[in-house]
Amino acid sequence: MQTKTYTERHMLGLKGMSEPELASILDRAAYWEQFPQKVSQQLPGKFVANMFFENSTRTRFSFEVAEKRLGMEVLNFTAAASSVQKGESIYDTVKTLESMGIDAGVIRLKPNGILEELSQHVRIPLINAGDGNNEHPTQALLDLYTIRKHFGAIRGLTVSIIGDIKHSRVARSNLWALSTMGANVQFCAPETMRASELEPYAPYVSMDKAIQADVVMMLRVQLERHGEGMLDSAEQYREQYGLTVEREQKMKDHAIIMHPAPVNRNVEIDDELVEHPRSKIFTQMSHGVPIRMAVVERAVS
Question: pTM here?
Answer without folding.
Answer: 0.94
